[in-house]
Write a structure and sequence with these properties.
alpha/beta, TIM Barrel, Chorismate Mutase Domain, subunit A, 2 domains, 8-stranded parallel β-barrel, 13 helices, binds phosphoenolpyruvate, binds manganese (II) ion
């Protein structure tokens, strides 16, 4: 049976970024254990800090504090492991769940070492996304664990690094990436970590709600009794009281509805949408046919397939037309990039093909 249970309520994992002292761990657990949605206590024991010299965690000593949480509050505990030695220590201390951090998921050698250390062990493991937006690496790390015989796996979406200093997020959510992972592995249990995406406690609720709207199965949220005094990730941790309030205000969405009239309405709208999609595909095919004819003309007068002025004109006019219809400029641009790329690809094929000539 799986530790990660899908249900109407989100599966919530909460606890401090780092276990700092026995008192801090126990104080947090005492407050968090009473929140009904919280099913698992988290705390970092070995902290992968980006720069040397910052707090690197209390190590093995802190594992016994977590055992006190487990025994006192009957709350299972999870820690991050980044080395086979961490796995060994965590297992020796009876830690119930392990997770692999974002800085480890990027490295297949390291993930493999951890997977090897887990051979023959039955334990739930959570895999954070890699720091870079690469779904393959994320899936690869999960598969390495599967090959080691780990069956109880969850993915954690914690956002992706970027050099965009103007962004409101600490780590970019790039929502299509976790959705793509879910498309590839439909049965996968997927958790959102709005704390590391936000980097700021004021934005955690909004990101958590977005995850619920998109059908995530759970949330991992950092909580500290005195967040401003936290030794790591101070800006994004929230008090257990704030966490309780956030969870009580969360609107939880379901995949299905039992309300027959709403289900019928949805089905009707889907039918309409199917019709529009069929028309769109037909229009795209007609547009590509025109592209091919243009390719033949360009070939006969030795012109390039890509014409920068024409592309600029397309972007400008289509964005304006889209704007009138309330379609965002960003959406129109990314859509036309795809369409235009395909059109250019087809034209280049024609320019290179010595058999096709323009029909006059
Ligand atoms: C953490 O959970 O505290 C942590 C270090 O996370 P990440 O691997 O997502 O950076
Ligand atoms: Mn953290």
């Amino acid at each position: 049976m799986s530790f990660f249970k899908k249900g109407d309520a989100p599966f919530v994992i909460a606890g401090p970024c780092s276990a700092e002292t026995r008192e801090q761990v126990m104080e947090t657990a005492a407050a968090i254990a009473g929140i009904p949605e919280v099913k698992l206590f988290r705390a970092g024991v070995w902290k992968p800090r980006t720069r040397p010299g910052s707090f690197e965690g209390k190590g093995t000593e802190a594992l016994s504090w977590l055992q006190d949480v487990k025994h006192t509050y009957r709350l299972p505990v999870a820690v991050e492991v980044a080395e086979p030695a961490h796995v060994e220590q965590a297992l020796q201390h009876g830690t119930e769940v392990l997770w692999i951090g974002a800085r480890t998921t990027v490295n297949p050698f390291q993930v493999q070492r951890i997977a090897d250390a887990l051979k023959g062990v039955t334990i739930p493991v959570m895999v954070k996304n890699p720091v870079n937006p690469d779904v393959e690496l994320w899936q690869g790390a999960i598969e390495r664990l599967e090959r080691s015989g780990i069956t109880d796996i969850a993915a954690i979406h914690r956002g992706f690094s970027s050099y965009d200093t103007a962004s409101v997020y600490r780590n970019q959510p790039n929502w299509p990436i976790p959705i793509e992972l879910k498309r590839r592995k439909p049965e996968l249990f997927i958790i959102c970590d709005p704390s590391h995406i936000s980097g700021n406690r004021d934005r955690v609720a909004e990101v958590a709600q977005r995850a619920m709207d998109m059908g995530f199965n759970g949330l991992m949220i950092e909580s500290h009794p005195h967040p401003d005094k936290a030794l790591s990730d101070a800006a994004q941790q929230m008090t257990p009281d704030a966490l309780r309030e956030l969870l009580s205000e969360l609107i939880v969405r379901r995949q299905y509805t039992e309300d027959m009239s709403m289900a019928t309405e949805l089905e009707y709208l889907r039918q309409l949408m199917d019709g529009i999609d069929a028309e769109m595909i037909d229009l795209l095919a007609r547009r590509m046919e025109l592209s091919e004819r243009m390719g033949l003309v360009k070939k006969s007068c030795n012109m390039t397939a890509y014409q920068p002025d024409r592309w600029r004109e397309i972007v400008e006019t289509r964005s304006k037309q889209g704007g009138v219809k309330m379609l965002s400029e960003e959406f129109i641009l990314s859509l036309y990039e795809k369409i235009h790329d395909e059109s250019i690809r087809k034209q280049v094929e024609i320019l290179r093909d010595t058999r096709k000539e323009v029909k006059k």
